[in-house]
Amino acid sequence: MPSEAVYSLYIKRENAHEDPIYSCAWTQASTSSDPKAPKKDFIATGGLDCLVKVWQVEKNKLEILHELHGHAMAVMSVAVSPDGHTLATVSIDSTLIIWDLVSGNKVHEIQSGATDMWKVAFSPDGTQVVSGSHSGKILIYGIEKGIVDRVLDTRGKFAVCVDWSSDGKYICSGAVDGTVCIFNVAQGKLIHTVEAHAQTVRSVAFSQNSQSIVTASNDGYVKVYNAASANFQCEVNLKSWVLSACFSKEGRRVAAATADGCVHFISLDNMNTLKSFKEHANMVCEVQFNPAGVRLVSVSKDKCINIYECPVPPKQSKK
């Protein structure tokens, strides 16, 4: 079956925020004390309206669960802990807020002073979050006490984006000058500095097996590197600013968001485009797969949240 026949727009929620939406995260969490109760799908979004919204995906609909107030300026990034229960949000108001996702209660509010925060990511055990800064410092915060546990140094690279590998070994950051930095977490050391892109790196993300890193940049390229060695693996030019890229669960595909309003699904087998959607009227700011890797959410400056069906392609389709 051709890929075009199975990839489709599943849900479109218009005017989901009053202003452009900059960030999203998709998770599953249990809302019951019964450990055998099925988990539910939730999407968190943040944007220019200073709001964080938590949505429940159920019965082909996107229903609002919480509208969280706490930031004084645009929310640039949202992230959810691996167990789905803790939400972290950062804003250009230099504030990091930790929330309980299911209840919507605020747990901690951390003021970072003059440190800009553009992206946040959780440690694999959910006890810490990492965020970059304009000074090039990578800050690791403990969730329980809400204080800085460790500081890593990119040596002056303005860190726009960060991610933490699921095996806990590596933290990666992307900088305004196109540089990608890879840290060994146990050693607290910068182990690789890669001149990956010609322009700002907007997004870095590890594959689920922690072996690869996908990077996205204003130069139009999506690139994949080996996480341990930083060796270049492959690339694709999408001819527009790429604001976000992420791996699917099975690791054979990458989704990318571009400034021309498109969402692209790319095969890592041959770097060909499996499917491209232009369902947004403005630049797409972020994309995230659901935990199963069969659906994808995109958010945009057009204030819409879109969800796509994107089934895992059969392995025999490899060439």
From TrEMBL:
Q: Does the keyword Lipid metabolism apply?
A: no
Keywords noted in UniProt: Repeat, WD repeat
Q: Where are the WD repeats?
A: 68-109, 194-226, 277-309
Q: Which InterPro entries match?
A: SKI8, WD40/YVTN_repeat-like_dom_sf, WD40_repeat_CS, WD40_repeat_dom_sf, WD40_rpt
Task: Establish whether keyword Repeat is in the entry.
Answer: yes
CDD domains in the cross-refs? WD40
What domain of life does the native source organism fall in?
Answer: Eukaryota
Transmembrane region(s) = none
Q: What is this protein called?
A: WD repeat domain 61
Instruction: Tell me the classification of the organism that encodes this protein.
Output: Eukaryota, Metazoa, Ecdysozoa, Arthropoda, Hexapoda
